[in-house]
Amino acid sequence: MSLPKNFLWGGATAANQFEGGYREGGKGLSTADVMTGGTHTTPRRITPKLEEGTYYPSHEAIDFYHNYKEDIRLFAEMGFNVFRMSINWTRIFPNGDELEPNEEGLKFYDDVFAELKKYNIEPLVTISHYEMPFGLVEKYNGWASREVIDCYVRYCDTIFNRYKDVVKYWLTFNEINCLTNKFGSFMAGGILLEDGGELVLNANDDNDSSKQIRFQALHHQFIASAKAVKLGHEINSDFKIGCMIAYMCTYPYTCNPEDVFLAQQRDNLNNFLCSDVQVRGAYPGFAKRYFKENNIEIKMEENDEEILKEGCVDFYTFSYYMSNCTTADKEVEKTAGNIMGGAKNPYLKASDWGWQIDPKGLRWTLNNIYNRYQIPMMVVENGLGAVDKVEDGSIKDDYRISYLRDHIIEMKEAVEDGVELIGYTPWGCIDLVSASTGEMKKRYGFIYVDKDNDGNGDLSRSKKDSFYWYKKVIESNGEILE
């Protein structure tokens, strides 16, 4: 039960959650830059105008912008041969609709890629990861408008040509299926809803009026992604361009056929709708029925179906943190989750944030996806958000090691099952800002960053016990997991 010899080991980050330098180098204001801090119990707010005295976590984040050399050196010390990162769209096009890019922003990523190459680390670049130019929100209400497609394709054309010799692996949109939930309206779609723009954390709220605008925005992202795939292959035929799905693993709570069917419907709508379009190049039948029954009318232009067919992705990537249950019984106890909550599974333990820990679910998920598409796959987010304590200058995070070990074991089992898995990049390989809550307290990294929820700290980096453990895992290609 071994992984391929050329397996890609590394870690994952997002520019808006760790880069900082939000007004440096000509960077414009992004959607992430207008989201306030929050906590597990206090939702983040969206402020269309920045408020004096209000804390915005992305403005400094952990300041990779000024510390990228140290951070990449630490990644190299762990043995990374791949690093998942994103490009801040507003570093390249500050308002989003400019015709010419910002050279200073392009130069920053030249330097980052050069540093990665120095250590033979392959960049895996997410083109749009929960940030878009706020100028496009103000002008078009984000992805609700078709005009944004051309802005995105212009951005892709710029970075594809600039980095065509240093980046091979690209992802068009992070967790594109977020827009199937109201939670993703602003964070993933840049859409300010009529409710005043408060970020909605109740991911199960299907009784809303935003479905039409969300699914239309999602269609615009599908077209943008397909155009980017075709363009990228024309610029460099060696490019590998993938999709990225927040996989919401959902079990039926009981063997009641109602629960079983409900779980299948959730799997279809929340997971497979987006990947069917991006991998197969067309909307599935169940999506068309859902649109009809929910009075959603997707406005398409004449060539849209052809564009989707011509822009299928080369590989499939996804995030996996947990599983949930679903049931028709409204009295069953509920629990939290990544994007979408669900019924509490009595057989599983949960994290401090209520996310149920289910390593076996990763094997099930890998098989479920691969049996459907049979294209190369990567797990590009996986990890445990936890409160880490510094004691005697060290961080003993055995709980994180245990979580990751159990998931890697199941990942290897899936490879033995026949799944074509080519890489693994655990989320937040260095501590960064939580997207959902805006916290630093919720830590995922192998590397500790001295900063708290209020922005206090000297940003110094230190190695957790998991740093040394993951180094051994990579050195042994997943054979040494103790």
Task: Describe what this molecule looks like in 3D.
With 482 residues, the chain is an alpha/beta fold. It contains 14 helices and 14 strands. The protein has one domain (8-475): Glycosidases (TIM Barrel, Alpha-Beta Barrel). The protein is 37% helix and 13% strand. A hairpin with a 6-residue loop joins strand 9 (334-335) and strand 10 (342-343). The chain starts with 7 loop residues before the first strand and ends in a 7-residue tail after the last helix. The relative contact order is 0.14.
CATH architecture assignment name? Alpha-Beta Barrel
- Output mean pLDDT: 95
Number of domains: 1
Q: CA-to-CA gap between the ends?
A: 16 Å
Q: What order do the strands of the largest sheet run in, or round the barrel if closed?
A: 1-2-3-4-5-7-11-12
Poorly predicted spans: 196-204
Instruction: Please name the fourth-level CATH homologous superfamily.
Output: Glycosidases
Count of discrete alpha- or pi-helical segments spanning 4 or more residues: 14
Find the CATH topology: TIM Barrel
Backbone structural class: alpha/beta
What proportion of the residues form beta strands (DSSP E)? 5-15%
Fraction of residues in H or I helices:
25-40%
The global form is globular
Write the element-wise H/E pattern from the N-terminal end onward: EHHEHHEHHEHHEEHHHEEEEHEHEEEH
CATH class: Alpha Beta
Protein name: Glycoside hydrolase family 1 protein
GO biological process, one term: carbohydrate catabolic process
Family: Belongs to the glycosyl hydrolase 1 family.
GO molecular function, one term: beta-glucosidase activity
